[in-house]
UniProtKB/TrEMBL annotation, chains A, B:
Belongs to the isocitrate and isopropylmalate dehydrogenases family. LeuB type 1 subfamily. It comes from Chishuiella changwenlii. HAMAP family: LeuB_type1. This is 3-isopropylmalate dehydrogenase. Mg(2+) binds at D222, D246, D250.
Length: 351, 351
């Protein structure tokens, strides 16, 4: 059996706690299914700035390039957020890593677990059966366009730019996914205002011709932000640009009752990175209350990407079992005092 | 009693239907409180393109400049949305009007009406008591920055730009409003990625010093999109840039159970415009099912702006009465078959 090299970047905040549990689980999976993983840790984010001055040290980047997959925790530290003079920021590490690895598609599945319906701020009748996946473009748009702040802070600008090729690449992935699902792609944009959005509509419409059995529809982002709450079941595959995807997918996380459940995969032509969508959540750091499920489910997405379907399925089933038995952290059940590692150990026991 | 000149721009979609009812109500208010209104109609949007080739004809703009206030319906027509080659678009009319009149602050109150709590997709316990107001910057940002599409559609870009003065102006309004309310301003931005957002944080922080009894906090827009659903009661005044405000305020409309209830005021130094936030809703056009409440409540905001507080209050009370008695359109009560004008006539009866 091939050895899969996995770069482990646990980062800041609750990242190290959830990634620690996930690696424990992967080591169990390794034995059960006779896989071979070679884990290697590296620094990124605020902790990398503290230790090296650089949010993405060269050896971290090189390790990720050489790895078969990257398992990522989270980054960010409030001490950088309100300092307009900060020259380096933790987020730059993640953004540069995404760009350097060419991770153009961020894939975020959102589903409502039956046993957690009562946890959602939304009424059960609205969300029961929700099962969508968001394809967010990840290495272009306003995140990566030219930026500028005048020295005297009299003005600033950011640029959102997209090429036809940027759009084609992720649109194909979204349509391919839709053919395996309910055959519907919804493009979320602001084509009544933005030039880039009109380019998205044009290119996506052209590409849709190659997938005649997939229906394509369009939603303005403001309307999408409403529809996601009013009627989430209408969505199958959502395709959107970087910033809209950031907003919409975090918003969509409320459907399932906790952002602590949602995994993501960031896919490029040669590399892939797997991370929970929850971010660093500094308030919870070190308290043992962080929900490890999003990270564990990200690892399942990683196994599937590596062709290790059995292991992926085993993890997903074990997580579902834990959720059904309410062996969950307090974000999902206020009466629970199960810690991060108790929950992870339960998953291990099932495996 | 002074005569107030009101420019009436009913626009496209359901705009004409809801504005028609609103003007009827204003004429009743005029008699009851002995006000003097001079209404004058003008074209804007798709209908203006159809009739004049221009989404904002010169005489419409002039009328609005000369008026004491503008009562606006909605604009937009699907036939322009998917045509990347269209040279004129209805939205350009509204955007140009906002810019020319200097309407820098779009003010969108969001509250949960007790009798409609059951209508909301959100659970009652989450939304009961929600009462916030969003201050959205309206004439800068990515809506108005330089835009470009290559002739061969190989790429496109949009620019988001803000000056210190743009931010100061609306930040002052937001802080002033907060002093009259629960004394909290939340700035929604993406300061971990965007230069313009970091400028917003810096300028807003400086201005907050002038309002020592108002608390200022910060939320990344992705997190805000979550918090708005998880815990809307935490918000008092939300301050944000143009695009984020567009998304967040439409999202927030779900709290009250229908976007058909939400009014807005767009304020400049010399002009003001009042419009429902719901947009043209072409599917409902001409069916008599459009909810007139958002437009009627926008008229109440207009009266308050004109210093006609009694009339404003009377309208708001009458609308609340109608809602409490479920004299509402079908968007608020599926069993209702009250039409747009039946609802409006009930409001008139109460007045
Ligand atoms: C940390 C931040 C830069 C990042 C983003 O906005 O992409 C995060 O919110 C995410 O969604 O992965
Ligand atoms: C019609 C459109 C241009 C407009 C906007 O995005 O500003 C609308 O959505 C609104 O919020 O008033």
């Amino acid at each position: 059996m091939k050895t899969h090299k996995i770069a482990v970047l646990s980062g800041d905040g609750i990242g190290p706690e959830v990634v620690f549990e996930t690696v424990k689980i992967l080591k169990v999976i390794e034995k059960v299914f006779d896989y071979n993983f070679a884990f290697e840790d590296a620094l990124i984010g605020a902790i990398a700035i503290d230790e090296t001055g650089n949010p993405l040290p060269d050896n971290t980047l090189q390790l990720c390039k050489d790895a078969d997959a990257v398992l990522f925790g989270s980054i960010g530290d409030p001490k950088y957020d309100n300092d307009p003079n900060a020259k380096v920021r933790p987020e730059q590490g993640l953004l540069k890593l995404r760009k350097e690895l060419g991770l153009f598609a961020n894939i975020r599945p959102i589903k409502a677990y039956n046993s957690l319906l009562s946890r959602s701020p939304l009424k059960k009748s609205r969300i029961e059966g929700t099962d969508m996946v968001i394809f967010r473009e990840l290495i272009n748009g306003i995140y990566f366009g030219e930026k500028f702040t005048a020295e005297d802070f009299s003005y600033a600008y950011d640029t959102c730019s997209y090429s036809r090729a940027d759009i084609e690449q992720i649109a194909h992935l979204a349509f391919q996914e839709a053919t395996k699902r309910r055959k519907k792609v919804t493009l979320v944009d602001k084509a009544n205002v933005l030039d880039t959005s009109r380019l998205w509509r044009k290119v996506t419409t052209e590409i849709s011709k190659e997938y005649p059995d997939v229906e394509l529809d369009f939603l303005f982002v403001d309307n999408a932000a409403m529809q996601l709450i009013l009627n989430p079941k209408q969505f199958d595959v959502i395709l959107t640009e970087n910033m809209f995807g950031d907003i919409i997918s975090d918003e969509g996380s409320v459907i399932g009752g906790s952002i602590g459940l949602l995994p993501s995969a960031s896919i490029g032509l040669e590399n892939a990175l797997f991370e929970p969508i929850h971010g660093s959540y500094p308030q919870a750091k070190g308290k043992g209350i962080a929900n490890p499920m999003a990270s564990i489910l990200s690892a399942a997405m990683m196994l599937r990407y590596l062709g290790l379907e059995e292991g992926a399925k085993a993890i997903e089933d074990a997580v579902e079992n834990a959720i059904n038995n309410l062996i969950v952290t307090s974000d999902l059940d206020e009466t629970s005092d199960y810690s991060t590692s108790v929950v992870a150990n339960y998953v291990i026991k099932i495996l």
